């Protein structure tokens, strides 16, 4: 049946389409005819107006076709020639637009609007191939002048090598002849390159690189395979080749030649290595090579050369540390430190020499090189000195770096043309190493205390001297202090090997207090700070840093107390319920104090965050901290725990809960505007916390007063008896005490709802009554004693009657208030 209907539907669609096509053709034909008639009519009217008046006054025979033109509107607008005289308006002026819009023959006229303008698309980032084509529009020229010469020199060197190998295999050339051919080939390439250096610059550079490569490998083969040269001779010859390459790069003014000479120079030790491991020769050669680059840096500012020399030096010196120092019994620590110092001095001079000569500014790359040079040197020195006299000289080494940078900063500060960025950087290094001196020489929490005091001192000196670099350094030192404090907490509080700390008066808590004092003093100093803190990546406003310090102070105060309390409670009571009760009381006290401080703040965001923290603590109290009180009571009275410290402490927790609810309810108007769901859910949340707290207190006090006069069980039989009695008592509280308590709470909510004219309190009261009745009839009646059943029923009945009486007594007043004064709280 469905298939039949589908086929029938298709047939109807086909037939309808044909019929619609026929109608469409007829309409199109009619429109064409009407348009022609209208055009003829307008032409006739124009001719009529152009006749003389005598002719125009003669009677004109009426035209039969004129009537339909007045009522039929053309679907396509005719082409009207401009005329000076006003033309007669059509009879139906507004209809042609409508008919024209729905005409299937007409085409929509495009209207240029702002929305129809094409949107400006972001220019896509060109690909590597597109950039290559843009930089090299003439591919033929690129291949002929740039690519072929590099391929050619590589093939030429390979061809020379193959020819020499063939001659060697055929015993045509002995060892000395082979070396001579290599030197001759390399010299020939250098001579040709020198000959064409002015006319074919790029090609000559490639020839120089090839010639140097041939010379390097020829001398290496002569030493390693043929033993023609001794190691010293081969070493000296390669130094000469490297020096010659440096001179060529300077005379030709080509950085690629300098890079080539560097690569060959740093490859030389591997070419002439005999496996003896003489580190003095290796490091001396690298030092000589770096001195050559220092000379080059005086004449030319070739950053790529600096990078290559610096990278190879760091790599080779790291290999020396890993092979000659690490794990060796009698390692050359003093020699390694001497060479590290010389490398540091050479690259420090290489960083400074050209810019100082030209009085140029230092770029971010050059600053980064200077910083990394200092960092690598300091790391190498600390690593080497850690094995000398148990690190006794590490503090002296750190102080020496501070003195060196201070002397350099003082020398450059007197020169007006020196870039101020370099001066500030050196001052920052002085402050950094001076800050590290005491921590390196001292141990543990003394580092944190020193940095806490120094951060304040640096900020104070910055405000007195006007040096912005000192203010920036104070931020960095403050960060180091916080990291060090976290390490102290981990070491002192969590390490089991640490001796037991005294309560409060221990080095961990005292260090925390000093760190907090540093943050508070910094916040007070920032109130007189005006200029922002400058960094290389940007600047930090004083207001933002004040907010950061405020939050850090709160976080530090909280975790200082938590760590100390948790440490002492764990060692005193273990990980039992008493520890949870103590931690819960501390958290609630902190939330109350935070709210009291935040209410004095004018910022709504601070009060909102403090309120959110308080609500979170109330939720944690319900689901985590308060149940620990009942676990503590059960463990104590059943003989599993020796302390009941949690029960007297919980009264403070109870006061904090009440205080939080009062504060949050009082401060709620200051938090407006709040989302509507928050305003509606707050009375329910407050009522839930109050009812839960009252129920928990009922359980705790009935259990405490019931078992307080009994003897704590010691044997398993006594524990089983107490266990049975304990849970039977809980069942009685649940079935008798809770219905009465909840009924009283519901009555109180109803009274408050009447008194404060708050509809939500009344709804909460009725809901709690309904829950109590459901619990009573569905659960509590089973197994309840006769006296408990009577007490529950009588109390609930009396309370319900009182509420009913109150409703009847002031029903009219409630209705009037609800209808005329509907506030957000009532709704």
Automatic annotation (TrEMBL):
According to the lineage, what is the superkingdom? Bacteria
Which residue ranges run through the membrane? 147-164, 176-196, 202-223, 235-252, 279-299, 304-321, 333-355, 367-386, 392-413, 422-440, 446-462, 467-487, 499-521, 542-561, 581-598, 607-625, 645-664, 684-707, 736-754, 761-778, 790-807
Record has Membrane as a keyword:
yes
Which InterPro entries is this protein grouped with? DUF2339_TM (IPR019286)
Q: Which UniProt keywords apply?
A: Membrane, Transmembrane, Transmembrane helix
Q: Does the keyword Transcription apply?
A: no
PANTHER family listed in its UniProt record? BLL2549 PROTEIN (PTHR38434)
- Spell out the protein name for this chain: DUF2339 domain-containing protein
Q: Which organism is it from?
A: Spirosoma foliorum
């Amino acid at each position: 049946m469905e298939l039949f209907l589908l086929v029938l539907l298709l047939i109807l669609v086909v037939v309808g389409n044909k019929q619609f096509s026929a109608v469409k053709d007829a309409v199109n034909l009619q429109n064409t005819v009407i348009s022609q008639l209208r055009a003829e009519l307008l032409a006739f009217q124009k001719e009529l107006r152009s006749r003389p008046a005598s002719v125009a006054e003669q009677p004109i025979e009426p035209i039969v076709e004129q009537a339909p033109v007045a009522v039929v509107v053309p679907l396509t607008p005719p082409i009207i020639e401009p005329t000076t005289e006003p033309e007669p308006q059509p009879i139906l002026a507004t209809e042609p637009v409508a008919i024209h819009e729905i005409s299937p023959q007409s085409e929509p006229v495009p209207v240029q609007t702002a929305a129809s303008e094409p949107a400006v698309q972001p220019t896509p980032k060109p690909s590597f191939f597109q950039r290559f084509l843009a930089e090299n529009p003439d591919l033929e020229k690129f291949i002929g002048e740039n690519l072929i010469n590099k391929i050619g020199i590589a093939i030429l060197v390979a061809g020379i090598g193959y020819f020499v190998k063939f001659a060697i295999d055929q015993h045509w050339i002995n060892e000395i002849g082979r070396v001579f051919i290599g030197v001759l080939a390399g010299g020939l390439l250098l001579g040709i390159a020198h000959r064409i250096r002015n006319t074919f610059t790029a090609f000559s550079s490639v020839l120089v690189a090839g010639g140097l490569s041939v010379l390097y490998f020829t001398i290496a083969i002569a030493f390693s395979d043929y033993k023609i040269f001794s190691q010293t001779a081969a070493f000296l010859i390669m130094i000469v080749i490297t020096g010659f390459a440096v001179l060529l790069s300077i005379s030709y003014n080509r950085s690629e030649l300098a890079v080539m000479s560097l690569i060959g120079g740093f490859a030389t030790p591997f070419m002439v290595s005999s496996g003896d491991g003489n580190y003095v020769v290796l490091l001396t050669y690298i030092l000589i090579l770096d001195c050559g680059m220092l000379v080059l840096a005086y004449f030319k500012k070739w950053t790529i050369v600096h990078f290559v020399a610096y990278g190879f030096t760091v790599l080779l010196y790291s290999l020396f540390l890993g092979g000659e120092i690490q794990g060796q019994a009698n390692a050359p620590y003093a020699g390694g430190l001497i060479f590290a110092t010389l490398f540091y001095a050479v690259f420090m001079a290489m960083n400074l020499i050209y810019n100082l000569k030209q009085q140029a500014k230092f770029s971010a790359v050059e600053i980064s090189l200077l910083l990394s040079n200092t960092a690598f040197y300091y790391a190498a020195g600390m690593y080497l000195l850690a094995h000398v006299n148990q690190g006794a000289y590490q503090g002296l080494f750190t102080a020496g770096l501070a003195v060196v940078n201070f002397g350099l900063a003082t020398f450059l500060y007197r020169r007006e043309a020196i870039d101020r960025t370099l001066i500030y950087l050196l001052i920052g290094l002085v402050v950094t190493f001076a800050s590290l001196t005491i921590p390196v020489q001292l141990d543990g929490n003394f580092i944190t205390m020193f940095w806490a005091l120094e951060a304040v001192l640096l900020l104070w000196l910055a405000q007195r001297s006007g040096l912005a670099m000192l203010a920036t350094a104070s931020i960095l030192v403050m960060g180091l202090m916080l990291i060090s404090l976290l390490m102290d907490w981990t070491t002192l509080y969590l390490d089991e090997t640490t001796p037991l700390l005294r309560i409060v008066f221990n080095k961990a808590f005292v260090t925390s207090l000093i760190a907090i004092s540093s943050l508070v003093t910094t916040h007070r100093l920032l109130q007189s700070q005006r200029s922002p803190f400058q960094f290389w990546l940007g600047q930090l406003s004083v207001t933002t840093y004040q907010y950061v310090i405020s939050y850090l102070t709160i976080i530090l105060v909280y975790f200082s107390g938590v760590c100390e309390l948790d440490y002492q409670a764990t060692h005193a009571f273990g990980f039992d319920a008493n520890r949870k009760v103590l931690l819960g009381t501390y958290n609630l006290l902190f939330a109350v104090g935070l709210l009291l401080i935040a209410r004095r703040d004018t910022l709504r965001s601070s009060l909102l965050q403090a309120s959110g923290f308080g609500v979170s603590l109330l939720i944690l109290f319900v689901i985590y901290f308060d149940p620990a009180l009942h676990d503590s009571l059960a463990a104590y009275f059943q003989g599993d725990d020796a302390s009941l410290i949690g029960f007297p402490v919980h009264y403070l927790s109870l006061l904090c809960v009440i205080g939080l609810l009062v504060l949050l309810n009082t401060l709620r108007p200051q938090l407006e505007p709040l989302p509507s769901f928050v305003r509606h859910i707050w009375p329910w949340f407050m009522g839930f916390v109050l009812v839960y707290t009252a129920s928990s207190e009922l359980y705790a006090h009935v259990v405490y007063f019931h078992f307080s006069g009994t003897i704590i069980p010691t044997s398993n039989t006594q524990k089983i008896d107490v266990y049975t009695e304990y849970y039977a008592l809980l069942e009685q509280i649940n079935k008798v005490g809770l219905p009465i308590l909840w009924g009283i709470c519901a009555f109180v909510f109803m009274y408050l709802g009447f008194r404060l004219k708050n509809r939500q309190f009344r709804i909460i009261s009725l809901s709690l009554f309904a829950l109590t009745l459901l619990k009573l009839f569905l659960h509590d009646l089973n197994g309840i004693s006769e006296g408990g059943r009577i007490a529950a029923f009588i109390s609930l009945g009396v309370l319900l009657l009182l509420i009913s009486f109150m409703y009847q007594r002031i029903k009219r007043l409630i209705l009037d208030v609800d209808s005329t004064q509907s506030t957000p709280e009532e709704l």
